[in-house]
From TrEMBL:
One of its GO terms (molecular function) is hydrolase activity. The lineage of its organism: Bacteria, Bacillati, Actinomycetota, Actinomycetes, Streptosporangiales. PROSITE patterns: NUDIX (PS51462). Pfam families: NUDIX. Gene3D superfamilies: Nucleoside Triphosphate Pyrophosphohydrolase. This is NUDIX hydrolase. The keyword Metal-binding does not apply. It is an enzyme of class 3 (hydrolase). Residues 17-161 form the Nudix hydrolase domain. Keywords: Hydrolase.
């Protein structure tokens, strides 16, 4: 490969710009049921599909990773949780709507088991960007009947394999 002088355009500058973000998802179980949330019809990526609560880290606002997952769960479903350890890491790509044309966001995510401190889930705290219109406590044996967002499917398999 030919060398590139410092400051000169190199072969990587032609690649699509990628922004890296970090997310966490909360697997909250109570009484043999997992809390799922449903994306609304207005969700730009996965309308009407199901997932678990969580979201991307706000670097300036979240004090630490436990604070981050607590905030996300509170905003999306109004529950207080006790965060547990991560059990799975994965990634997905999505268009960068606020970045350069053709840019992408690479989201690296951690799935965490969380113990609920409260149980009355509500969507009243979410902001419009969450695009949620429902939540349900689903028996673990019935999760296979829910249309999950594609990137969550292998994570759900890993969770269910160890949930018994």
């Amino acid at each position: 490969m030919p060398s590139v002088e410092a400051g000169a355009a190199g072969p990587l500058t032609a690649l699509t710009p990628i922004t890296l973000q970090f997310a966490q998802k909360a697997f909250i179980v109570s009484g043999g049921r997992l809390l799922l949330v449903r994306k609304s019809a207005s969700d730009p990526f996965h309308p009407r599909r199901w997932e678990v609560p969580g979201g991307r880290l706000e670097v300036e606002a979240d004090l630490d990773l436990d604070d981050h997952i607590r905030r996300e769960v509170w905003e999306e479903v109004g529950l207080k949780v006790d965060p547990g350890p991560p059990f799975h890491l994965w990634q997905w790509f999505m268009p960068d709507r606020g970045g350069p044309p053709g840019g992408q966001v690479r989201v690296v995510a951690a799935a965490r088991r969380c113990r609920p401190v409260t149980l009355d889930a509500t969507l009243g705290n979410q902001d419009a960007g969450d695009h949620l219109d429902g939540c349900a406590w689903v028996p673990l044996g019935e999760i296979g009947g829910y249309d999950l967002i594609p990137s969550l499917r292998p994570v759900m398999r890993a969770f269910l394999a160890t949930a018994g």
